[in-house]
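Can't paste images in this forum, so I'm doing it all in text. The chain is below; anyone willing to post the predicted structure tokens underneath?
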Amino acid sequence: MQHRLNKTTLAWAVGLALGAAPGALLAAGFYIQEQSVSGLGRAFAGEAAIASDASTIYFNPAGMTRLKAPEFQAAVHLLVPKSTVTNSDSRAITPGTGGNPLPYEGGSGGNPYEPSPVPNLFYARPLNEQTWFGLGITAPFGLANEYDRNFFARYDSTETSLKVIDIAPSIAYQLNDRVSIGGGINIQYADATLKNALPDPTRVGGPSVDTDGEFALSGDSWDYGFNIGLLVDLSDDTRIGVHYRQGITHTLEGTATTRLPFGLGGTSVSQGGEADLKLPDMVSVGLSHRFTDRWTGLAQYTWFNWSNFDEIAVKLASGDHPDPVRQNYKNSWALALGAEYQLDDRWTLRGGIQYDTTPTQDGFRTTRTPDGDRTWFSAGASYERDSRLGFDLAYTYIDVAKESLNLDREFYDGLPFASSVQLRGTTEGHVHILAAALRYRF
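Text version of the structure:
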């Protein structure tokens, strides 16, 4: 066999088959709406309009002008996801299969998720009668999953980790008794790690877990963006809010490491590289209407500009530019409806539902983001101990619809042992969320 190639060239030809990996980070499942416990309790219905606590800094900073006093809020959301990926006759085509598509070994991968806490902090205070200052620290994107070693789709992914931390100093100004504007600077840190297996093209009968290689990519980035909001009281009982959040593009710089499969020598090569991680622009319109002294109805529509992520291009320190890989994301939207009930002076009860569409499409969906359209069912409550101290609790169940997995992954393109894997299956799942917050007014 013709294996007498430069080892570095060979390793990178192997690794570049995974050039699409950074793009797999981006899906509805990686946007974390959970930045308000009271908001979670109503499935985030009316979040751009209601301005009930300091978490309005994230959803519409103009809402700070409606707060009753300076406020500090600390919260944590515990996400407990489960995903099931089912094999539907996936096959490999390698020299070891004689060029024929043959089934290869591999299991379901198990549930790739562990329970994940998502904390956030907010602080808001007035600077004068019209102007407020706020600071929010959140994690608006992120996920960590890891499949079993013998996962049938291991040539698509074995491990994914994404963390995005957002620091948002914000200002709000009350133009008059009914209209306020606000905005903030978003200072973001992004860190990503991606791993997947590489098939051994020389193994007779098809690739095996024991002879697989591995490709790993890690990188991080600091970058900046902004958000801006408008809040209008249409009447004493009705309020509308509009909020825009810029989609920040991170250029992740880091290291990619390729460990060749056993049949290609098993050696490892590392090299620096970079890839863009494009987060979506978001536009939200929220509505709050008080029907009685006790009942308030809420609604919200959010649009996500995922279509700006149509491909992913990787640039290596060597100067190599592999062909961009199509992601074909589509714009998506979410619609939420909810209500709150003022039980007495201390207790507020709330609930809501949300329908959240996925930007992933058939033929491009990946096991890094086993995502589908989502339906949310939420309930929550707030308790005011006194005029200063308050607590929020919420629970949400999210059903993730069943979707197809239909991917063709190419390896060692242009080399004598060029191979491919046909991944066929389905994905579905659900998420439980438990959340609690402490609020203190000064």
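Residues 1-27 have pLDDT under 50 and may be disordered. The two ends are 75 Å apart (CA to CA).
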